[in-house]
Each structure stands twice: as C-alpha cells, then as structure tokens.
Amino acid sequence: MNKSIQYFISAFAIAGIVSGCDKPSREAAKSAPVALTNNADNGQSRSADGSTPVSGEGDSKKSTPPKFVPPAESEIPKNEYGETVLMGRNIFVNTQQYARNYVGNGLNCANCHLDNGRKADSAPLWAAYVLYPAYRKKTGQVDTIQSRIQGCFRYSMNGKPPASDSKEMTALVTYHHWLAKGAPTGIKLPGQGFVELPKPDQKPDMARGKEVYKNNCVLCHGANGEGTKANGKYAFPPLWGKDSFNWGAGMHRINTVAGFVKANMPYGRGGSLSDQEAWDVALFINSHERPKDPRFKVSIAQTRDQYHDENCLYGRTPEELEVLLEKKSKAQAEDKVSDGQARLAPGQLEGYSPATAH
Amino acid sequence: MKNPPQAMDNQSDVMQKSIQKMHEKNGAVATQIRTIFCPITTLIPQRFWKRILLSIGQYTLATLMAMAASIAVAEPPPSIVTKGSGAAVACASCHGIDGAGHAKDGHPALAQLPQTYMTKQIADFKSGTRSNPLMTPIAKALSAEDAESAARYYARLKRPEIKATTMDPAVIARGKNIAINGAWDRNVPACFKCHAEGGLGIAPVFPRIAGQHAAYLVSQLQAWKTGARTNDPLKLMKTVADKLSDDEITAVSAYLATLGTQEKKK
C-alpha cells in the first residue's frame, strides 16, 4: 500500500515538473490563474488559433494555451445582476431596438462580434474586457472599457455615445463582465481581437477583390454592399454606404477586414478563403464610400494625415496606399518594431491596447 | 276610457315637443363634446354629419368585403397543380392543394416558400444537384412554364398548420438551442441567423424552415451530409450538416416542426 502511494506521488511530481518546463518565462504569467497561460506578446503577428480552423496557419508558439470559454446564455443568473446582463445582451444583439437613441446606421454589435460577442477572432467581449483600461494610440489616452464602448457607438455605429453611467452603458459593461467571468485581467487571451494576417504574396488587387466579393459575399451582403433586410431590419449587414460603419471605425482598415474575413467569412465557413482572397476582398470592400469620419477637420487631406496614417483608403488611392505601406514596412524593417506601435523598447508596451491603432 | 283620442293627440303633440327639445338638448350636448375634442368638426353643419358618417360606413364595409373576398379566393391553382401533365404528376397529389405536404411520407410543405427558391429546386432536380426518386422524374418532365406557375401558386399560400411528430421536451429544447444560438464550438451558426428570426426565411435564397415537417428536414440535412444534395449556395448547408450529429439533426428538425404556421406576434 505504502509503495503504491509513493508511486502516485512521484507520478504527480514528474507530471508537474514536465508541464512546468515549457511555460514561457514571463513575469506577468505569475498572476494568471491555473488554467490559462499568458500568451500576450503584444504586437507580434498571431496566427488564428483556438476554435477557428484556419488552413495554412501554423502555430509558432511552444505551448498551446487552453481556450477561454465564456458562459452560455442559459447560465445568466436569475437576479438583478442577471437582468442587467440580459439587458446588455439584448442591446448587443438588437442595438437597433434597445439602444435606438444612440445608433446612426443599420448595424447591431453582434454583426461583427459574432456569436453575440463570444466568438474568438471576431473581437470577443471577454477578451476585450480584461484588457481595459489601456492606452490607445487612436485616442492618445488611457481608455476605460466605457470610453472604448463609446468609441464603438461613435464610429462603428455612426451614432452618438451613451453616457458612461447611462443604463445602456451599464448594461453593456455588465454583459462584458459576465462573459469574461474567470478570465485573467490584463492578459491578451488567444482569440482576442482579429487575426493579423501576414502580408499577402501579391499586393491586394481591386479586380481580384471584386471577383471574390461576387463569388462569396453578394449572396448575403448584396451586389452593392447594401446588406439584406428581413421584416424591415437588416438580416445581413451593409458593408458600405450610408447604413454601414463610418470612416472612423476600426473596420474601415483593410488589414482589419482581411483578418476578420479570413477567420469568419462566409458565415460559418471561416478559414475557407485563402489569405490572398481575404486581402483582395478587404481592399475591394473598403474602397467604397461610407459615412464621414466624425473627427473630420477642415479637409479630407488634413483628416487623413492626422487620423488615417494606416492601411486604409481614406483620402488616398490604392496606388498611394501601396506607397504608404512600402514606406512603413521599410521603417519597420529598420526599427524592428511592429506596425502602428510607438517606437518603444520591448517591455514598454505593457498596458497598451493590442489593437494597433483602434 | 282613460285616453280619449283627443287626449292622445294632445299627448303626441306634447311628446313631439318634448322629443324635439330632447334633440335640441342632445344636439347642444353633442356640439359641446365635439367642440372640446375636435373643434374643427363644429365647422361642419349638423345636417352633413349623417351623410358623412354613412359614406364612411359604406366604404369601410366595401373594403372589408373585398378583403374577405381576397382571403377566401386566393389565386386559383393552375392545372399542373390539380391535374398534372403527363409524367409530371399533379403537385397537389403529394404536396396538397393547400401546400401542406405530408408529415409521414416526407412530402414537404410548399406553402409560403419563396417562388424563386422553388423554381430553383426544380431546376436542381433536373440537373441532379438535388435528387429524389419521386421528384427527379417529375421535375424532368415539368415544363418551365408549369414549374413557374406551380411555384407562383404555392408561394402565395399561407403555411397551414402542420403536425409536429415529436413532442419530447428535451429533444425540442436541444433543437431550439441550436436554432437560436447555433453550435459555435464547431462554428455552426444559429439557423435563425440566415433563415431569419423564427425561421421564416429570407427570400429568395434562404427558405422558410418554420413549420416544416420534421421527417423532411431530417432527410434534407442528412442529404447534405451524405452529399446526395449539393445545390446549397456557397456550401453553406453542407458545412452546417457535416458538423451536426444525427441526434442534433433530429432535435433541430423536431423543434422547427413545432413552430406552427402564421407569423407569431412578438
């Protein structure tokens, strides 16, 4: 009896030692709860992992951290807190109805934050919540989750932001909080934000993008990006035009759409398009008109120079964009610093939003 | 005699006078009420009110009768539906004049399906991207005009009440969860994200799935899974069906069959 107990103990000890061996040595990892490994290498190009099957994307990390799984809607508690969670969930899924005073277009949050804010690689809420407050280059300040959500209304919803202490904001923040239950604070979890696709083999092309769009997107999003309506509201969202997100939204950037499309589109068939197709269709989609950037000042050129030094077609042609991206990649190669981040020493990125510009 | 004729005449005179007084009083009261609630109406002299109210009444009655007529007599079914044409057996013999289909035999309810969706299915039966031992020869024998007129007829019918064959609450609850929330652990979107809230469909591409026979839904999901049916745009249904287990297919079909008929008010 004695011997078998000893064997058990040694087996556990060996297992413990072996599993401890290949954890990356980062100081931040010490505060993470047992189930999750810190995988937050800010700015590093990240392949799609977790639930989304993406072909051809290898996992370059040594360890595969367990996926964070948010609670199911059936688990919303039956109390006052749960009622607020539910209100937040309703606003998130049917923003048109439940936050009608704040929306200025035809979208709902869940149009891009798929599975009602749960799905990895489509900017899930549980991953965003634990990264705020964070410094964001876009606003030039440390944003709270409230001010972050206000930005969503201002740009993605082309509307006006609810006050930080409004019942709508409280409900949305509570929904975030509940989805993030158990997630470690300050850690960039696998599946956070959008996939960062590597640079395509061929530079993105409008004609190819139009073809990809015609063969894969028109069915739901319409030949003119107008979306599809059912019972007077959008079943599939408009991608451009007056009812879509405005020029200030993160989704107007070509690299963002490329990553989003690659991991999530067509709906339910994420990973079915090649990287090249994702880049091409992203260029095509974001070459169209949409509502103006609310930060517009004096002229498009001035607004572009101040706010749109990024991979987008605001106030520039595809050819001009190529020139800009060339310049940036040269600067990157020289400085060995990721795109969009300030030129900081490694370790100085802590507390910075992993979204490079937004 | 208590009431001699003269007394009655007198009385009726008095009656007339008092009735007249009553009318005047009512008229005054009515005018007072109208002045409070809708001053503009006091501009219309009293003698026109009768005519106005009568006309409104007549128009309303006429409209109601027309509406009733239109509901009672929908477009009459074309002969392809009632009689068929050669090898193209009458649609109604399996799908019913009311488009209700048949639960056990697996004949789908056609009522209220999008017209373009239905003509596409006939074309797909012809080309083989969809196949069924009964429908394939029928579709091949159907002329384009007949397919169009049958589809047009069925599209305009309201979906009749169909009988749900499974009432097991656990199975239905499981199916409901898939229909409303999907199974995102396997990248399966909720049915209702593409087939619309309540499964009412988004014409012309995404057909109504609410109130469809469970056996038929099971057979189609299995057909996508096995590759017997390949006419789904962008392989959307193939992708979904591949990821659902047989139990899940049964559950979601059972749930959709319980969704009854007319659009539920929210």
Describe the secondary structure blueprint for this structure.
The complex is a heterodimer of chains A (358) and B (266).
Chain A (H helix, E strand, L loop, with lengths): L1 H20 L58 H14 L1 H4 L15 H4 L7 H5 L4 E3 L4 E3 L1 H12 L10 H13 L26 H11 L1 H4 L6 E3 L2 E4 L17 H11 L10 H11 L14 H8 L10 H18 L23
Antiparallel strand pairs in A: 1-2, 3-4
Chain B lengths: L4 H33 L8 H27 L6 H4 L9 H4 L19 H13 L7 H7 L2 H12 L13 H13 L9 H4 L19 H13 L9 H8 L2 H12 L9
Helix pairs in contact in B: 5-6, 5-7, 8-12, 10-11, 10-12
Report on the structure:
The complex is a heterodimer of chains A (358) and B (266). Helices cover 38% and strands 4% of the residues of chain A. With 358 residues, chain A is mainly alpha-helical. In chain A, the strands form 2 sheets. A two-stranded antiparallel sheet of chain A has the order 1-2. In chain A, strands 3-4 form a two-stranded antiparallel sheet. In chain A, a hairpin with a 2-residue loop joins strand 3 and strand 4. In chain A, helix 2 crosses helix 7 and helix 10 packs across helix 11. The longest helix of chain A is centred in the N-terminal third of the chain and has 20 residues. The termini of chain A are far apart. With 266 residues, chain B is an all-alpha fold. Chain B is 56% helix and 0% strand. Chain B is built from 12 helices and no strands. Chain B is elongated and about 90 Å long.
Quick summary:
The complex is a heterodimer of chains A (358) and B (266). Chain A has 358 residues and is mainly alpha-helical.
